[in-house]
Amino acid sequence: MTYRARSALLAAFALLALGADPALAGIHTWDVSEVFSNADGTIQFVELVEANGGNAEGGVGNGSISSNTKVFNWANGAVANTANKKYLVATPAFASLPGAPTPNAIISAGTLPFFFQPSGDTVSFAVYDSCVFGAIPTDGVHSFDCVTNTTVVNSPTNFAGTSGSVIAAIAPGLVSNFQDGTLQNWTGGSAPTNIANGGPAGAGDRYLQISATSNFLGVFNKVQWSGNYIAAQIDHIDMNLKNFGPNPVSIRIMLLTAGCDFGGTLCTAWTSTLATPVSAGSSWITASFSVKEINLTRVLGSQSYAASLSNVERILIRHDDGTPNPPTSGVAVSATLGIDNVLPEPSFTVALAVGAALIGGLSRTRRRSRPR
Description:
The structure is a single chain. By secondary structure, this protein is mainly beta. It has 2 domains: 3-168, Immunoglobulin-like, CATH 2.60.40; 186-346, Galactose-binding domain-like (Jelly Rolls). The chain has helices at residues 3-17, 92-95, 305-309, and strands spanning 30-37, 44-50, 64-66, 71-73, 86-90, 105-106, 121-125, 129-133, 142-145, 150-153, 186-187, 193-195, 207-215, 218-221, 234-246, 249-256, 269-272, 276-278, 285-290, 296-300, 314-319, 333-346. The strands form 4 sheets. Strands 11, 14, 16, 17, 18, 20 and 21 form a 7-stranded antiparallel β-sheet that branches. It has a 6-stranded mixed β-sheet with strand order 6-5-2-1-9-10. The model is unreliable at 1-24 and 348-372 (pLDDT under 50).
């Protein structure tokens, strides 16, 4: 049996194992093109590319990827017109990020993190291609390009050709402006709602609204707004606020490390020493909250400022009048608050593209079962 025939037979067996009909949909010309992860591995994607100009490689719709410890299979049905297309496989948290193209397959939550990023891993597509990498960026902005072996600003693309670039951790350029109609991963018990009109720019300007009746008023984000604030050189956080009444509120921000879920007290929390007052029935105002140590009070835990701000799990925006309170307590109020254009500001301009020098010594190997 010739090498080419033997390779074709192996490919056919692989297709049958994946539940695809080799007569209807090829699969063997897809490569791993880009991998991305945030620091805790909850936000990851693997982008595949049809690398041989094959227009009948539709078996990717019933494909499989693996890392050194995990396997994920999907069965979405064969696709058509595949030449040079991309196919995007990602985690649920990635799918909810602003600017994220819709994944073609969602990695099961039980397999997260799918690949191991601190010391490197191998991500493979079926038996046809592998991307081997060392430590990759986890700054929420950069990814590893498996074709060029370089660090790049992430650019995930799905099969429909929709491309985007996401920010999955605190970084200059991040903004929560709610114009995409979602909550942009802000959540909490104060009924956060995306309002279609009436933001600072008027008609058509969306904003986030939270409400409380004789209860705590606040909202938090532990997706884009987690990360290393010191490495990102964040100096202060700005936002627009509007109090729709009927009572005045005093707004602080709080930065928390991991360990405070469900009322836990294992985290360290730093909050604004001075609150920003917003009068009842106010117009939109611009508020600026410093994250410098001199302007924060530690209200829970024992980690140093440097250790805490290097590993922020979430940011909390809340009403907290008087002496700063820990996250386990607060001040009840009846109020409705509008929030818009939340953005981190660096102490000086920091470029997003910091270059391939972030990582070095990365290697990539490929294994193929067929000639090109």
